[in-house]
C-alpha cells in the first residue's frame, strides 16, 4: 500500500509540473494573440490598395505579362505549406499538412510535378522524415512573421516562376495556409497565387461607371513594379493569418491540457487517499488481531 501511495504522489507531482508549463504557454499565447490579430488588421489596407491597383491594370490594359499568363512549357508547380515552428498547438500544423497532401494528390492526378516549399519547422520535419526534397524552407518565426521573411519567400517563389523550364521553372504557385476567422474557427485554405487568376478585394459591383486609366510609362512597366509587391503582400498576409491561427490553436490546446491535468491530479489524489485509507485499515486490523492474540494467550 505504501508503495502505491508513493507512485500516485509521484504522478501527482509530475502532472502538476506539466500543468504549470501548460498554463504558462496558454498565458503566453493569450498575450500574443491580440497583437497578431492587430497585425492582420493593419496589413489589410495596404493589401487592399495594391490589389485594387493590380485590378485596374489588369482590367484596363491588354498587356500579356509573365505573372498573368499561363505557362505551357513545363508541368512543374510550386507549393508552399505554412505551419508552426513548435508543437503544443493542437491539430493546427496537421490540418495544414493534410490539406497540402490533398492538393498534392489532385495535382498529381492532373499530371503535374510538385516542387515543394515549406515554412515552419513542423512542415520541414514532415517532408524531411518522408525523404521529400524541399526546394526552399524557412523556420524560426512562425508565430511572429516579419516583412523580411515574407520578402525572402516571395523572391524565391517569383524566381522559380520566372525561371526557364530547363532551369527548373514552375508553371503555377499554390500556397497552403490557415485562415484566421475567429478565436474558435481557423480554416486551412489553398490559393493559387500565380499566375494571377482571381484578384481579391475588388470593389463590389455597382452601377457606377468605372474610370478610365492611362498608365505611365506603360501598363507593362506598372505590372513589373506592382506584381512583385503584390505577391509579397499576399505572402505576408498568409503568414500573418497563419500566425494568428497558430496562437489561437495553442491557447485553446493549452487550456484543454490544463483542464485535463487538473482532472488527472484529482483522480490520482482520490486513488492516493484510497490507498492511504486501505493502509490505515490494514494497520488497525493488524493491531486488533495482535491484541486478540495476546489476550487469548494470557
Structure overview:
This protein is α/β, with parallel strands linked by helices and 298 residues long. The chain has 5 helices and 5 strands. A 5-stranded mixed β-sheet has the order 3-2-1-4-5, with helices on both faces. The longest helix is centred in the C-terminal third of the chain and has 79 residues, at 219-297. Residues 198-209 have low confidence and may be disordered.
Topology:
Layout: H1 2-59, E1 76-82, H2 92-109, E2 113-119, H3 121-129, E3 136-138, H4 147-162, E4 172-182, E5 185-194, H5 219-297
Parallel strand pairs: 1-2, 1-4, 2-3
Antiparallel strand pairs: 4-5
Helix pairs in contact: 1-5, 4-5
- Count the beta strands: 5
The separation of the N and C termini measures 32 Å
Uncertain parts: 198-209
The residue fraction in helices comes out at 55-70%
Q: Structural class, judged by helices and strands?
A: alpha/beta
- Rg over CA atoms, rounded to whole Å, is 29 Å
Order of helices and strands: HEHEHEHEEH
Strands side by side in the biggest sheet: 3-2-1-4-5
Number of helices: 5
Main sheet overview: 5 strands, mixed
What percent of residues are in strands?
A: 5-15%
